[in-house]
Amino acid sequence: MMAITLNAAELLNQVLRSIDESGWSALIRDAHKPFRLRVYRGDEHGFDVCIYIWNCSHGGGSARSSDEYRVQVTSVVPASVHGETTLLLGWHPGYGVFVGFDITKHEGQSSQSPSIQVKEEALIGAHSHAFAIHYRHNGEIAVAFRPEFLVDYALNAVSLHSTGKVAEDLSLLNHLDTLTDSQIVTVEDRDRRVVLSQMARKYRATDFSRRVLGAYSHRCAACGIQLELIDAAHIIPVAASTSTDETKNGVAFCKLHHAAFDRNLISFDVQYKIEISETEVSRLASANLAGGLDVFKKHLRTAIILPNDRRDYPPPQYIEEARKVRNWA
Ligand SMILES: [Zn+2]
What we know:
This protein is an alpha+beta fold.
């Protein structure tokens, strides 16, 4: 694997993009290392984060085992900032995952540029199923995770790096891809059950979205734009008992067309032809809210752009069912 290293600005970009993929937003308080950000969602006030981050690379020197990766802690001495969530992270571009270390174990580490190791299996685990909790020989727990879990990691960093019973319970996160609700209810501690079910729900949602966006080449099925402004929408809505997370129950829409679809302004029929609701249009017109309708119509394709693979095409019975539960006239 080629060694790619990011400079500080690129690492900051990676962090910001990951926060966005986590479904949160960030304000920059300090763009110099360590990065200091305010992480927030919608109108919430949010919380402050201080991030120490380095590239995670294959260790040099022949004495090092080949399955070991390391983060070289250079130029600063990590220290927790009071009132802020302080993270100590490595980023591995090849696997596209972060690895988080326990800040309390490395605070004030003053020896000349110490390095922290992590086994490759942790990076592989996170790459393939989002989370990998890894015991290091010194008793520290390292946590590798995918970018879209960065904020979840930050919110739960203390528990995630705890040992003993907490670690035993949270080790279920190593199997997020198969984690079921019946496994989660066996965990006695209520807070940890909440963390586990939030993560499991997030895994399912991001897994769905990853598959659907891939199937549609990250392109809006209604207008064709990409620009990373694309959502994966459920055709039969999640709230319906008949809904599934199969790729074929998904369609990729840009933010505008996703909202238009959810609000019943547009739909598509079993022949994949896009329709605009006449009922909705006349309601909007009479309320003096139909401005831009011409432009809106002009950007709509005649029929939705279909996935490359036929198996991902929305099945007619799903479309029928969706139109029924969405009260599409
Ligand atoms: Zn669109």
